[in-house]
């Protein structure tokens, strides 16, 4: 809580392999913590922030942590109490917090790696940015909730094919539809992409790339055959 949140992040980013999750309440922070958040995201450490909507620390630290962690592909959920300041901390009913910790410490078995993965691969998380405004009678207020603790969270795999410039990214649905349908996107899929989120919910894979860094169109390098997934 508060300065304790800064201490928690300082310790966690220095010992990322020893952390199963972080619950931070109106947390403080510092520049070094912000620079090291990638260490936690790379280990898929889930985060939960409970904050007051008029607490100055919300915009100073909690907001930047959320934005940076999402950019790294990490899982961060937030609960913003309407009209609340820095105090009082936590919730009158701790169940959402304890549920988050329990689910983080005892996660379900990971899904098998897709057969199409090859070479150097990276796995991150993809989830929508939409907020839900929910009534919490025990708290006497409404709370804005968003993040993978409140919405579906999908695995996002990035990999490279030999002889092809640029990486391929595939967002996997939880339950693939019959025939394993997929949709190609020529650009980065943002978290507010409502059509893509709806397709994922219906069992479609979302495929992006390869998009090269040069101005030319994606193509296999000279001397190699084209490859498809």
Major sheet? 5 strands, mixed
Mean pLDDT: 90
**Share of helical residues:** 10-25%
| Coarse morphology | globular
Q: Order of SSEs, N→C?
A: HEHHEHEHEEEEEEHE
Specify the structural class.
Answer: alpha/beta
Low-confidence stretches: 221-229
N-to-C CA distance:
47 Å
Q: Determine Rg (CA atoms, Å).
A: 20 Å
Beta-strand proportion = 15-25%
Q: So how many helices?
A: 6
Name the strands of the widest sheet in spatial order: 1-2-3-6-5
Number of strands: 10
TL;DR?
The chain has helices at residues 3-14, 31-35, 37-41, 56-71, 95-105, 194-201, and strands at residues 22-25, 47-52, 76-81, 121-127, 132-136, 141-146, 153-159, 168-172, 182-185, 205-208. It has 229 residues and is an alpha/beta fold.
């Amino acid at each position: 809580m508060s300065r304790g949140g800064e201490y928690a992040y300082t310790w966690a980013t220095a010992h990322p392999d020893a952390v199963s999750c972080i619950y931070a309440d109106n947390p403080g922070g510092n520049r070094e913590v912000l620079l090291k958040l990638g260490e936690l995201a790379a280990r898929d450490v889930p985060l939960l922030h409970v904050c007051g909507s008029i607490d100055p620390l919300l915009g100073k630290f909690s907001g930047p942590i959320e934005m940076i962690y999402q950019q790294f592909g990490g899982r961060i959920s937030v609960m913003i109490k309407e009209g609340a300041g820095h105090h009082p901390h936590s919730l009158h009913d701790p169940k959402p917090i304890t549920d988050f910790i329990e689910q983080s410490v005892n996660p379900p078995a990971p899904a098998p790696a897709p057969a199409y993965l090859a070479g150097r691969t990276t796995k991150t998380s993809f989830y929508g940015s939409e907020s839900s405004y929910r009534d919490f009678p025990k708290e006497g207020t409404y709370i804005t909730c968003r993040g993978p603790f409140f919405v579906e969270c999908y695995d996002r795999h990035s990999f490279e094919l030999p002889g092809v410039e640029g990486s391929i990214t595939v967002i996997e649905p939880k339950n693939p539809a019959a025939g394993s349908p997929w949709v190609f996107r020529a650009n980065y899929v943002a978290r507010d992409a409502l059509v893509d989120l709806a397709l994922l919910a219906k069992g479609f894979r979302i495929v992006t790339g390869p998009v090269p860094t040069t101005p030319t169109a994606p193509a296999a390098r000279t001397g190699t055959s084209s490859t498809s997934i």
